[in-house]
Design goal:
heterodimer; A: 175 residues; two-stranded antiparallel ribbon; B: 180 residues; alpha/beta; two-stranded antiparallel sheet; 8 strands; 34% helix
Chain lengths: 175, 180
């Protein structure tokens, strides 16, 4: 086999029981890669993207409130009927809050959503008693509705107390 | 500094959250991309993939109809060069088991939310500048799950019970780096 790969074709190296395939290099050709000096990133491109993102920031509050509406909708649905499907829906909406809250400027709400996800995923005792879930959903809702952005001191205090409460409940449940 | 021409690349963003699609599109446009297609679920993502032949796919994990893993499996199972398309999974799931599951289904790069311009830029540059070879076995087809060759590894070959064999590949960076 030739040492040099035709950039338009995949290069297949046959091994016993498997193949190693070097894909065609069309992406590399198209992207016109240039290395100027070291391997650092083109920070000007990153800055331009961040500037574009900051123009969307005016919508973040509305978007975060929509996420919280959905979380509350899914939670109420789950409380009404604790099926596996409703639990999955609640988990998915908590995951969305977890993933988006920091981008929208609510990192504490994001961390509490993470805690909600872990409670749903890992502790049947917490899910059964619902008390901790209830408080987590309420806290996330309050932080967003009150616009307690970034590392807001009251939001952080709420987080601290709530996580301590969750730990106590877990200990009580023997988890 | 590494520079690539984003304006020559075609992206497909698949996410059921329209706000997140807007954010990713905004970031890509900021990097210089012009052609950014979008889809709101896995099924329309597959349709958009077939119709537009994107160079890079950015997708969410949890989506209706087909999720991100199922869409990846369909892309990896497609005919020809499309099967090698880099796929970046952008998701709130950050647990190790999820990362390993994504990797074992042929995801090229994994990016945890919250998203940042820098982290997305790094992943895109990485899939372009440092493409990994693909591995095809009876049960797996996707980017090589070993990112680095362990040159001093002396244990048994994990793909087969044969003597350890290191396949050396020069990185693209080394190939195109201009002498200082």
């Amino acid at each position: 086999m030739s040492k040099y790969q035709n950039p338009d074709e995949a290069q297949v190296i046959q091994k016993e029981g498997y193949q190693i395939i070097n894909p065609p290099k069309k992406l590399q050709k198209k992207a016109n890669i240039r290395i100027l000096g070291d391997k650092s990133l083109d920070l000007a491109a990153v800055d331009r993207a961040e500037a574009g993102l900051s123009k969307l920031a005016g919508d973040f509050n509305t978007w975060m409130n929509e996420e919280v509406d959905r979380l509350n909708y899914c939670y109420k649905k789950y409380i009404k009927m604790a099926t596996l499907e409703n639990r999955k829906g609640l988990y998915a909406s908590a995951q969305d809050v977890r993933g988006h809250a920091s981008t929208y400027g609510f990192p504490v709400a994001g961390r509490l959503a993470f805690s909600l996800c872990s409670a749903l995923e890992e502790s049947e005792a917490l899910v059964r008693h619902k008390d901790v879930l209830d408080r987590l959903v309420d806290a996330i809702t309050a932080i967003v509705r009150q616009n307690a952005r970034d590392e807001h001191p009251i939001a952080k205090e709420l987080e601290k107390e709530l996580l301590a409460y969750k730990r106590r409940k877990l200990a009580d449940a023997g988890a | 500094m590494i520079r690539i021409d984003f304006n020559k690349l075609r992206f497909l963003v698949v996410d059921d959250n329209n706000h997140m699609r807007k954010i990713v599109k905004t970031l890509l446009h900021g990097f210089g991309a012009r052609e950014v297609y979008e889809a709101e679920d896995g099924a329309s993502g597959l349709e958009a993939f077939t119709a537009n032949a994107p160079d890079i796919v950015i997708l969410d994990w949890v989506m209706p109809i087909l999720d991100g893993i199922e869409l990846t499996q369909m892309i990896r199972g497609s005919e020809g060069a499309d099967a090698y398309t880099p796929i970046i999974m952008l998701t709130g799931y950050s647990e190790k088991k999820r990362v390993l599951q994504a990797r074992d289904h042929g995801i090229t790069e994994f990016l945890c939310k919250p998203i940042s311009a820098k982290s997305l830029y790094q992943r895109i540059v990485n899939v372009v500048v440092n493409p990994r070879p693909f591995i095809k076995t009876k049960t797996f087809f996707g980017p090589d799950r070993r990112r680095n060759a362990l040159l001093h590894y002396k244990g048994p070959e994990r793909r087969l019970d044969e003597a350890s064999e290191v396949y050396e590949q020069t990185s693209l960076y080394e190939k195109i780096k201009e002498p200082a």
